[in-house]
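Holo prediction — alpha-D-glucose-1-phosphate-6-vanadate.
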Amino acid sequence: MTVIQVPTTPFADQRPGTSGLRKKVQVFQQPHYLENFVQSLFDIRPDLAGGTLVLGGDGRYYNREAVQIILRLAAANGVARVLLGAGALLSTPAASHLIRKYRAQGGIVLSASHNPGGPEGDFGIKFNVANGGPAPEAVTEALHARSREIDRYLTLDGPDIDIDHLGTTNLGEMEIQVLDPVRDYADLMETLFDFEAIQQLFHSGLFSMRFDAMHAVTGPYAREILEGRLRAEPGTVINGEPLPDFGGHHPDPNLKHAADLVALTKGPDAVSFAAASDGDGDRNMILGRNCFVTPSDSLAVLAANAHHAPGYAGGVVGVARSMPTSQAVDRVAEQLGVECYETPTGWKFFGNLLDAGRITLCGEESFGTGSNHVREKDGLWAVLFWLNLLAAKRQPVLDLLHDHWRRFGRNYYTRHDYEAIDADAAQGLMEHLRAHLAELPGRTLGGRTLTYADDFAYRDPVDGSESARQGIRLGFEDGARIVYRLSGTGTEGATLRVYLEVYERDPKRLFLDTAEVMAPLVDIARDLAEIEQRTGRAAPDVIT
Ligand code: VG1
Ligand code: CO
């Protein structure tokens, strides 16, 4: 097999966003598009030559074709060994684990996460570095810069590789090990959680569960771990077959896109516990009977109860949350006497804190929770953590949550998304807010006094790197907050996210309806940003 050098010209739009490069499938299908990006990666990471690369994806449309293209480029660029998930499948957290376990130089995960798939849907590619985590900004910026000047890529001629059968094959000089995508990950979970106690819970006759894999990558993982190793009743996992178009749905575990699952937690036949994960397996939604646990609360509950899980028996050394995530975990950290870090949105900002041993748990309001066991957020891990807690406490989810609020107070929380709005209007809205930041502190809006207003900037405490303009934060005297930022994962126009939080510690006000509590703040947020006037939208597309 000979190495071929193919002349190419740069694409101007290959800047990775919050989590990798995400575009419509048709964009990725353009000749040279994927090749240019992957070659740019090999050009800026010379350590991949002679090294090990982990490779897999979430099973969406174009995943298998893309894997063949990447294998050829990897071989032509001198990669020594590729660890490939069979069927081209690997969940994001499983890929992170494999990179760490087999000391790979990095990994490529093909996914657009919770974005819809299929020929008309989205595709994406993410690069993770040797610690198993998403490439930090310095790397994604270098990758982008390289993609703007690339003029050739290297590939091989030769037939497609069998990516479905376990075993070792060769492509040119490169060795390809096709691995069971589930086994190493499932083994890791067994070291963290009390599988025996969870088995007993499943067999107590008092507990029932559904896990919705949303026809995405976690189906095989959930079947093996829940129905296999934990012996939950067959049928516990629903929508467990990964499909290239996710069955035509959004593989996004939230109240809107997992509405069928939510329905199973209500009524006389309600299950005790339900959970879902997203396209690439890094997000999670936690539900109990008549109860939705906000991701921000979930992080706080796990932090407060971590010692119940064997892998965290020593407690937590520190915690971190992304800036828009509610401050519920801050209260827990305060009581535990450990540090709580506030980082910009995106998992890449947790990596240094985890590597430096400053934090054990971290999370985002966007249905992401994780720990130092890998360097990605991890959907099934969060579900198993909850199962471990429920097994230890033998309490309904709702009671556990109520106890938590009684102890720490409650951070009512909601997020409003305005999707696919005009990009210029979105920029204008943010600029308008920025222009008024200085005059906001001290003003009283709807009976609440603003104490600070800023555009969030982060200085990484480990390596000192700076990230500016990470979202507008408005903080009120009583702990309430409004946050505005533009999404970095959308593929159409712009998406405005408005995050709202109200803190209550009055025991009589802990169990109110979230929408009612948030309503006055929602009005303030809309007026202040002139949302309707600037975007033409009277209401958000998604409320979570
Ligand atoms: C969104 C979420 C963010 C998350 C990111 C990737 O980003 O808000 O918290 O880290 O998706 O998650 P944005 O820029 O659209 O707000 V995933 O599951 O897509 O890897
Ligand atoms: Co995801």
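READOUT: The two ends are 52 Å apart (CA to CA).
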